[in-house]
Structure formats: structure tokens, C-alpha cells
Protein 1
Amino acid sequence: MPRYRRILLKLSGEALGEGGQGLSWERLSSLGGELAEARKRGTELALVVGGGNILRGASAKALDRVRADYMGMLATFINALALEEVLKQAGVPARVLSALSVEGVGEPFHRERALEYLARGEILILACGTGNPLFTTDTAAVLRALELRAEVLFKGTKVDGVYEEDPVKNPAARKYDYLSYEEVLEKGLGVMDLTAITLAREHHLPVLVFNMLKSGNIVRAVSGETVGTLIGG
Ligand SMILES: Nc1ncnc2c1ncn2[C@@H]1O[C@H](COP(=O)(O)OP(=O)(O)O)[C@@H](O)[C@H]1O
Ligand SMILES: O=c1ccn([C@@H]2O[C@H](COP(=O)(O)OP(=O)(O)O)[C@@H](O)[C@H]2O)c(=O)[nH]1
């Protein structure tokens, strides 16, 4: 029996690129293999993919913010197509469902259809975040996890979990194994944006933050092994 029946897995855009930028085919194909292995264990998987390897709205200071956010959402669409391709190459049925309509290459997100595809064993790749500017793919991941009744949100990122301080800036910072939503908010721990963590708290959605750059970690997390930091309450 798998540890979880249905998981929403958020994949960091930066973790798809070399040095955080662009698309690394090597990384993508090893990710495809891991996701195929995770799916074999019997867990239904919906993925929300980020776009930070191509463009983050808040960082594109020269552009109008809303315009930049639409560009950021389209960046997630490019990543989603790449993921769909590597999953198909790994022999897994996969499908892109998008919050913004990009006719000809992706289906619009529709909750009831998404639930049917998941029940059929397809891995869903949910592109373009929430479809609205001024949000993040972390918030989209919480939203979709709740809509699709996932038991847990896995946030795959570039660090091993949630620390007292950003471990990139302070390598001596200590990692937490478990945190309540309140602790994340009170301590101002920057691993997820406030909107995302607040929405998760309101609906009691557990969030597991773990390092997706470490090979095998996705399968470990899906199998219920202890990795990363669990946020709950
Ligand atoms: N307290 C903290 N614990 C862990 N990571 C933190 C913390 N504060 C800031 N970070 C930073 O947050 C980053 C992950 O957040 P985010 O920008 O959402 O990345 P991504 O969506 O690409 O995974 C980590 O790479 C880490 O450098
Ligand atoms: O619902 C959403 C999700 C994403 N974005 C834009 O898409 C970019 C890429 O997403 P994110 O930064 O969350 O990617 P990640 O950090 O996970 O790679 C964001 O910076 C935003 O500009 C948005 O406008 N609305």
C-alpha cells in the first residue's frame, strides 16, 4: 500500500535548470525516471511546476509587474511541456492542464476532468499557476491540492527543508523536522510565500518541504520515508 493515495507535488523551476537557469535535459530525464518510479508505487500524482529557471515576475524590475507575471506563467508552461515529454519518454501517461489557455498545445484546467485523469493513472502537469498575476506557483500548488483533494503537498525545492534562517545565506542554520503553520508565520520563515502558507493553514493541508535535487528523494518522500520538513498543525 502506498503511504499516500494522492499527492500534489510542486516542482521548483530552478531545479529543472543547470545552475538554476534554463532547462537541463539530463536533470529533466532523471526527474522523469523518478516520477515514473513514484507513480509505480500506486500514488496518484499531480504536479505544479514553477518558472523561476526562466522568469520570475517580481525579479523582472524593468517590466510592468502584471505583464512580467503573465510571462512568468508562460514560463511554467514551457517547463510543463518539457516535463510532459520526459514523462512520456519514461513510459508514463502524462497530460498538461493549463490555467491559461494556450490553444493547440495544452488543455484548459478543469477540475472534474482532472480528477478523472488522475483516477486513470495519468500524471497531471498543471501549468500557468493560478492563471492570475500577483500569485506564485506555491499558492497555485496549495489551491490545486485542495481542489483535487490531495492528502499532502510536497514542495520540492533546492534546500533540504525549512531552516531557522535561509541556509543559502547562513550555512550554519539548523533544519526543522516539524513545524506548525503558526511557527512558519511567526518566525517569518521564507521558504513559502505568506499567501500559500496561510491558505494551507486555513484548510489543514500538510506541506512537506524537501530537496528535489537529491536523487531518489521524490521516491523516498512518496514512499513515506522521513525527508525534509513537515509543516502541519
Ligand atoms: N528559513 C528558510 N528555510 C529554508 N529555505 C529558505 C528559508 N528562507 C529562505 N529560504 C530560501 O527559499 C528558497 C525556496 O523558495 P522559493 O523561492 O519558493 O524556491 P523554489 O520555488 O524555486 O523552490 C530556498 O532555496 C532557500 O534559499
Ligand atoms: O499563479 C501564478 C503563478 C506564477 N506566476 C508568475 O510565474 C512566475 C514563476 O513562478 P514561481 O516564481 O512561483 O516559480 P518557482 O519559484 O517555483 O520556480 C512567478 O514569479 C510569477 O511571475 C503568476 O503570476 N501567477
Protein 2
Amino acid sequence: MSAPAPLTAPGTPTGTPTGALPVAPGRRSAAVLWRTARAHPGELAAALTTTVLSSAGTVALPLLLGRAVDVVRAGDGLTPLLVQLSVVAVLTALTTALARRDAERLGASVAADLRERVVDRSLRMDPRVLERAGSGDVASRVTEDVELFTSSVQLAANVLTSVVTVALSAVGFLSLDWRLALAFCAVFPVHVASLRWYLPKAGPLYATERAVAAQRSQVFLQSLHGASTVHAYRMAPLQGERVRAASRRTVGASRAALRVFARFSMSMNAAEAVGLSALLATGFWLVRADAVTVGAVTAAALLFHRLFGPLGVLLLSFDEVSRAAAALNRLVGVVDLPEDPAPDPAVLARAPRSRVGVRVRGLTHRYSDDPTAAPVLRGIDLDVPAGTSLAVVGESGAGKTTLAAIVGGVFPPTGGTVELVGEPDGEPVALADLDAGSVRERVGVIAQESHVFTGTLRDDLTLARPGATDEDVHAALRVVGGDDWVSALPDGLGTRVGPGELALSPARAQQLALARLVLRDPPVVVLDEATAEAGSAGARDLELSAAALVRGRTALVVAHRLSQAAACDRIAVVAGGRIAELGTHAELLRSGGRYARLWDTWSRPAQAPQAAADT
Ligand SMILES: Nc1ncnc2c1ncn2[C@@H]1O[C@H](COP(=O)(O)OP(=O)(O)OP(=O)(O)O)[C@@H](O)[C@H]1O
């Protein structure tokens, strides 16, 4: 088998690909696990109590059997001992069943809590962190890692019982004879040696296994999302090879982990042979020296035998525990992502809610962390007074989408400020000083791709304003001209949409996005290419829908169709990351610059569609 390809750039920690989400250290994960368990005090107390009782029973039975041997050898009556044995056996069986149930119940609650926190934190993740990590990394944590951790609940129950049983067995050996206890301890050097060999290898191997699995998910997701591009450019063989290479790396990582585990399992048998031999030899010697009874040695041998199971569970489950720990570390890494600091209440109180203008000063942005890289935006200053609209036009790659995303508060710029200005005499408040929720209340954004969530049209639309009535929803749809086709559907707002349900054209999906913004009713809207997706027939309708949304609001509109730009109060032409021209449609035509040339090309009837695509 060929060695797995290296996963990381030189110098990056093992199993943490560059840009991947953080992985929490084991100690931090253990603390989070314990705190989560303590949040369920009733279940935690029940699991611990039944586990201790069942382990006590497991240890008591061999001790009673040993005593039975001595009673028989002495020729005394067995009846009281048999009664005791029966009672302990029944209670042990009962508490063992209860212990398993209680531990699983606690484990399920802990896993559910953790899953909710991971999903919640993932949904509130900074888009830049998500972009750097890749949606595959997030997806594999929220699905595979949560699954792996949840399926370890049964294992956790067994491990808990085994730990307590081993501890109580040590007490049992000591109650028989300290030398028998010492002989039993002969197993430990062998176990410790094999664990010291195994553990340092297992942790990184399983972390690597989880990380390559995440990379494989990433490649799969990219292939699925870009399926049409893959098809159009006949990239299927290349993409197929990428998927195969990712799968080969995953198989390689799993095999490496399995080989190490197989050698570790063999060492366990050796430890048991050593332990039992030491115990029996010591027992013979002690009986011959009249130091202990035959019954005591029998009890010790039975106790040791009963320990095979719990010790085996503990040692063999190091394998699964290592996997579950690797998954847990990745989950806690997501949970621990730093939260946005809460905004200053005084700033929040000042943030305007109506008649809001937008002021942009010295806006600079570069996508690369390298400060010497060329910026995409270079010192943009703009004012959009309350209730007016500004169209942004320019060639492809000029920086329009970047400007719109920053003004919409999707991500912060590397330099400069975007402020909301309450008119007529409110103080400006920077978007950077507000939390995401407060920004969204004031600034609504529509990006080029409008997502339709699985569910009914009603669910999809009321996401923007939970509690909105059907009448509110129909009214919002009427504003953007979408009520006719929705009302014509047999189930109206109850129609199910999304993958596998009623398929919506991109134009209709964008109309829904526009209606959602009408429902939310923010004073500022940023529309990035809201009409670009539709074909020329649908584009005109969407243009009208967008114009209806913009009316009365402060708007920044990235316009690919110049008719949409002409309908705005002012137009900014972006070129090379700067504002090249700014004015009304009439002013810019009169000045005969870039905009006038674009308009000239665009408005020639025969070339209109091509020109639209080129702006
Ligand atoms: N996430 C990103 N990471 C790195 N570079 C980016 C990213 N997004 C955009 N760019 C680059 O920034 C520049 C400006 O892109 P932007 O999308 O803002 O331009 P645009 O004017 O909206 O173009 P278009 O009309 O084609 O959408 C381009 O060179 C683009 O390649």
C-alpha cells in the first residue's frame, strides 16, 4: 500500500489543514464534556449511582464464591451463603441493566446538547471563517463528527462501568490479601507499556483520519455544487480523479490507524497471560504457607477472570475513544469559535432605524491577508442620502460585488468605514460597531444567488418576519409582483418548495428573496444583481419587482442592466476599485465618459443582450 499523501503544508499542525476550523485540545474538550453532563444533574446522579451499585455486585460475586469454597472445605452449611449469592446476583443483574440505561440516557442528552451547540454556532459563523475553512469542513463536523460522537454513547456507558469495576476490584483484591493484590498488578506494566506505545500514535492517526475525511467531503461537495460547470467544461475525468485521490487518502489514513490498533490488541493477550500466571503462582505459595485459604485464591482468580471483560473494554475502547475524542475535539473547536462582541448599548441606542442614509469613507479592501497584494477597492468615498437610490455599474471584476457586500455588512473592509446616518440630524454609527442582528434589522441584502429553503412558500417567506400573517405575505408578494403565480398554485402559500419539491426558476427564487425583504422592511437595501439571473424576458419583470422594493428606501443597487441603473437617482461607475464617475443618468450622459459609452453600446437594440452581459 502506498503511503498516504501529506495532508498539510509544512509547518502546520498535524491533521489541521491550512484554513480549517480550529480543533480544541483534549483537556478543553473534557472540561466541556463534564460541564455539559453537569447540566443534567438528575441523569448524572442516576448514572453514577447505578454504575457503582452494579460494579459493586460484579466484585462481590467472586468474593462470595470464594467464601463458598472455604465453607464446603470446612463442611459447614451452605444455605445462608447461597441465599446471599442469589440476592447479590439478582441485584447485580438489575443494577447492570439500570446502569446501562441511565448512562445511555445521560450520554444521549450530552450528545444532543453538543449537537445543538455545534449547529447553532455553525449557523452564526463569520462568513469569512466559513469561506476559509470550506463548507465541507463545517458539513463534516456537523454530520460525521456529531454522528461519530453520538454513536459513542453506548461505548461511554461501558467505559464508565468498566472504570468503576476495575477500581472496586482493586479494593476486592486488597480485602483478600495484599500479596494477591500485588500479583494482580503484574498486568499493569504490560498494559502501560503497550498503551505508551499506542497512544502517542493513535491520537494523530485518528485526527488525520478525521481531517482527510473532511477534505474528502469538501471535494465531494465541490463536485456536486459545481456539477453543471464540471459537465459544461468536460471536467468529469479530472474531478473524478480528485474525488478518487481524496478517497484514497482517507483509506490510507484508516489503514494506518488499523495496523497500529491490531498490534496493540495482541499485547493485551500477553498482559492477561502474565497477570493470571503471577496470581496463580502467588496463590499456590500463599496457600502452602498457610497465609490464605483456598477460597481466597479461588476468589482472586475469579475476580481476575471477571476483570478480563472490563479491562478489555477499557483497552480496546481506547481505539474508539480516540476516534470519539478526535471528533469531540473538532466539535468543541466549533463551539469555542470566538463570538462577536456584543455592541455597546449606547451605540445601539444611537443606531438609526428610519430615514437612514449611508456614508462610506476611505473604503479599501483586499481579499488576501498579504498587505502587499493589490487591493480590490481603493479608498472609496460615497454618500447615499436617506430614501435615495445609487446604482453601481462597471466592468466585470471592477469591485461592484465587493463594494455591495461591504456596504451590506456581509463582511468588514480591510480599511475605511461604512456608517449609517440617521437623518436629518442623527449621529453616524459604524456598521463595525453593531452586531450582525442589529445590522440585519437596518440593512437588507440580496445577493446574486437566492436560496430557496426546503419547506412551504409560507415558511420560506416568513423567515424574514416570523409571525407574519398570510395577508402580510400576500401583500409583500403583491409589492414585488409575485402574488399572481403564488396564488395560482393549487396549494398557494402551502406549496412545498426546495430540493425534491416544486422547482422554482432563478427569477422566481429572486422574487421570493425580494418579498422577504419587503416583509422585513429594512430602511436600507443592497441589491447585488437582483435581475441578472433572469433571462431577458424575466429580467424586465424582476427589474420592476426590485424597483418596487427600492421605492422609499435608501438603496445601493449593483446594476448589470443599465435600464435599472437609469431608474436610480444617481449612478456610480466603478473602475479598478475606484469611483470613476458619479452623477445622475442625465449628467453622466452629458459628460460623455465611461457611462455614456456603456449606455450607447447597451441601448443599441441588436447588441443589447451581449452588451448587458459585458457591463
Ligand atoms: N472571495 C474572493 N477571494 C479573492 N478574490 C476575490 C473574491 N471575490 C472577488 N475577488 C476578486 O476581486 C475583484 C473584484 O471582484 P468583484 O466580484 O467585486 O467584481 P465585480 O465588479 O462585482 O465583478 P462581476 O461583475 O464579474 O461580478 C476581482 O478581481 C475578483 O477576482
